Amino acid sequence: MKKREKQKICIIGAGITGLTAAYHLSKNQDYHVHVYEKDEYLGGLASSYKVGNTQLDKFYHHWFSNDQFALDLVQELKLSNYLVKKNSNTGMYYANNHYRLSTPLDLLKFKAISFFDRIRLGLFTLYVRRINNWMKLEDHTSYEWLKRMCGKKIFQTVWKPLLDGKFGSFADKVSAVWMWNKLKLRGSSRDKTGSEHLYYLKGGFQRIAHALAQKIKDQNGTVTLNSHVSKIIPHEEKWCVCIDQKKIIVDKVLFTGHLPQYKNIISNFSSNSYIEELSKIDYIGNICLVLQLKKSLSSTYWLNVNDASFPFVGIIEHTNFEDKDEYGSHIVYLSKYIETSDQLFKMNKVDFLKFSMKFIKKVFPEFSSEWIVKYDIWKSKYSQPIVVKNYSKLIPSMNTPYKNLFLSTMAQIYPEDRGTNYAIREGVKIANLIKENDS
Q1: What is the DSSP annotation of 377-388?
Q2: Which 3 state secondary structure label does DSSP give 110?
Q3: Exposed, middle or buried by CB within 10 Å (0-12, 13-18, 19+), for 3?
Q4: Which of 39, 200, 305, 377 has the most CB atoms around it within 10 Å of its CB?
Q5: What is the tens place of the pLDDT at every residue in 78-122?
Q6: SS3 of 175, please?
Q7: Can you say how many angstroms the Cα of residue 360 is from the centroid of all Cα atoms in its chain?
Q8: Which of 170, 183, 184, 180 is nearest to 140 (CA)?
Q9: What is the DSSP letter of 396?
Q10: Range(s) of the chain covered by CATH 1.10.3110
């Protein structure tokens, strides 16, 4: 009998979704899997760079105790020895004061709002965990829902600054479903005492990307970096993939980047109606300033900054979670979500640090530029899709209108929010869908 020829599958993007899908598909002897990544590194938003004697994530990451897809994959890839578990230490900066907010007792001491409102806020966070039918929230924005459920004072003090800092001009359009999911995820990661447990992967989250890439290669797949896919073209019931100066013919294509990039590579053959459908989802960018410091700013791991004048939504002191000896200095992330048309997004590294200094000093008056050993700035144009009301109606299908062309992006993760845990889940889901289409 003639031996069945292997199907060639091209996966565009070596982020966590693309690599997870490739890992599962390359286990199948009927597939020959090729992953192409335009950048020189693996992992997408979970990529890292060398700091001290180890790797540090460019954008801060952690897993919650209920991020089971990630924790299961870590075990499957035999990376459990690198997993660090600790209680979180969170707080809030509001009206020139620092508040610890790690436990229910801390909430009772949160004097920025009245005692009655503290009780109301605590009851609300418990109530959120009991909401299972999120579809009832789809017709409401987070603004509307939080004002109604928590009252004006709690909304203005706690929720509005966080939403404004995260989404900027899009803040009043963000769906209540997005906020519900965030609160439910955080709440369900707490133990009986109210303490929140987090996980970190020593050596950065890119470690999981490298482990996946090695598994793909061991299973006779390929992962190629610095390879830009400019377009794909239907070709005799197959696909012609244009990669830099070459073209390859494959049986199936899976795109795992961002929707604006996807629109570009299919624009030569796609219908206007499909392009319009994809264009209904907006994104916001991100700038992440990473400081290597001689001294610690505080004992808080995650400090939410509830100050309308402050450009950063949070100050994350990573070395209050992971040992500073790994890096040789204290590591602090300052994250700014921003529209890419904003002049701040276009600012160079030196100017952005100068811009940031006065704000850091406002929160930590003792801070000095002399503390800075080194600093880096990382940018992402498509950091966060904007989840608006009735978002479920906007999400494009993984099965595209075109045979053997598949789509899996962070914009399709819903009602959950984007993140490595759900990127892994979606990678498994799309791999199974591709196999099902062949059965």
Answers
A1: EEEEEEEEE--B
A2: coil
A3: exposed
A4: 305
A5: 999 999 998 888 999 999 999 998 888 999 999 999 999 999 999
A6: strand
A7: 24
A8: 180
A9: P
A10: 103-190
Q: Span 7-61+204-281+387-438: which CATH code?
A: 3.50.50.60
Where do runs of H (alpha helix) occur along 64-175? 68-76, 104-108, 115-129, 142-150, 152-154, 160-167
User: What's the token pair of residue 157?
Assistant: 């003090």
Element at 359 (helix H, strand E): helix 349-363
Which SS3 state, helix, strand or coil, does residue 42 take?
coil
Chain region(s) in the chain for CATH 3.90.660.20: 198-202+284-385
Q: Which of 386, 389, 411 is nearest to 263 (CA)?
A: 411
Give whole-number Cα distances, 183 to 78, 87, 134, 299, in Å.
31, 17, 12, 24
The hierarchical CATH code for the domain 103-190 is 1.10.3110
* Alpha carbon distance 134, 117 (integer Å): 25
Tokens of 100: 């610890």
What CA–CA distance (Å, rounded) separates 280 from 283? 10
| Cα–Cα separations (whole angstroms), residue 314 to 94, 124, 302 | 12, 23, 7
Q: Are 103 and 193 in contact (CB under 8 A)?
A: yes
Structure tokens at 303: 């400090």
* Euclidean distance between CA atoms 61 and 48, whole angstroms: 11
Q: What CA–CA distance (Å, rounded) separates 90 from 101?
A: 5
The pLDDT assigned to 404 comes to 97
* Side chain identity at residue 228, one-letter code: H
First to last CA, the chain: 21
Alpha helices in 151-197 (DSSP H): 152-154, 160-167, 176-188
**For residue 299, which amino acid is it?**
S
Distances (CA, A) of 319 to 59, 200, 298, 330, 356: 14, 11, 10, 6, 20
pLDDT at 192: 62
Tens digit of each residue's pLDDT (9 = 90 or more) over 288-333: 999 999 999 999 999 999 988 889 989 999 999 888 998 999 999 9
Q: State the burial class of residue 407 (Cβ atoms within 10 Å of its Cβ: 0-12, 13-18, 19+).
A: buried
- The gap from C-alpha 138 to its chain's centroid, in whole angstroms, comes to 22
The fold adopted by the segment(s) 198-202+284-385 is Polyamine Oxidase; Chain A, domain 2 (3.90.660)
pLDDT, block means (10 residues), the chain with 439 residues: 76 98 96 97 96 94 92 97 90 93 90 96 92 94 98 96 92 97 78 75 94 98 97 96 96 97 96 96 96 96 90 93 92 94 94 96 96 97 96 97 97 94 98 91
